[in-house]
Amino acid sequence: MFGKIVVGLDGSETSENALRLACDLAQKYQSEIHLVHTPQPQTVAFALGAVTGYHAVTTMPSSDKVQAAGEKVLNAGKAVAKECGQEITQTYMDRGDPADRIIACAEGCGADLIVTGRRGLGTVGSLVQGSTTQRVNHLAECACLSVL
Q1: Would you give the end-to-end CA distance of the chain in angstroms?
Q2: What's the CATH number where 127 sits?
Q3: What is the pLDDT of residues 14-54, one digit of tens each?
Q4: Using CA atoms, how far apart are residues 143 and 114, in angstroms rounded to an integer?
């Protein structure tokens, strides 16, 4: 039923829950799992500020720090999958709109299902414009599952 599953990760608890559910489905259907992360400087700045006293309001992180934070999110996702007894087929990390990147990945690999957390680390603007998950659900050409 689900040969390829794309999971959108942002480092939030709900995206980890989405990955765990995707792993459960992958085990049942012998599916490939593809992880997508689109690092956002604002959320990296917030995370750095919450952890190390980084001045998130006045200073945005460098490209290297954004890249390193993105790799950390993907590596954490791989660790969760391994803990669930699953291997990640491929990871994708690119800049841009997270919903667009998730959809592009799903179309590119021929995914049957996209799994995302219902509420992640999106910006305040997402409260006005709509969340990544809402956009994915609206634009994707395959099944979508949002997880709490």
Answers
A1: 23
A2: 3.40.50.620
A3: 999 999 999 999 999 999 999 999 998 776 655 555 444 54
A4: 6
- Distances 60 to 47, 52, 120 between C-alpha atoms, Å: 11, 14, 20
Distance CA 15, CA 24 (A): 14
- How many domains are contained in the chain? 1
For the segment 77-129, what is each residue's pLDDT rounded down to a tens digit?
A: 999 999 999 999 999 999 999 999 999 999 999 999 999 998 655 544 444 33
Nearest to 6 by CA among 89, 95, 68: 89
Alpha helices in the chain (DSSP H): 13-29, 41-52, 63-83, 98-109, 125-129, 132-139
Cβ neighbours around 79 below 10 Å, total: 11
**Burial degree of 6 (CB within 10 A; 0-12, 13-18, 19+):** buried
Q: Which domain holds residue 56?
A: 4-147
| Other C-beta atoms lying within 10 Å of the C-beta of residue 23 | 24
Q: Rounded to two decimals, what is the model's pTM?
A: 0.86
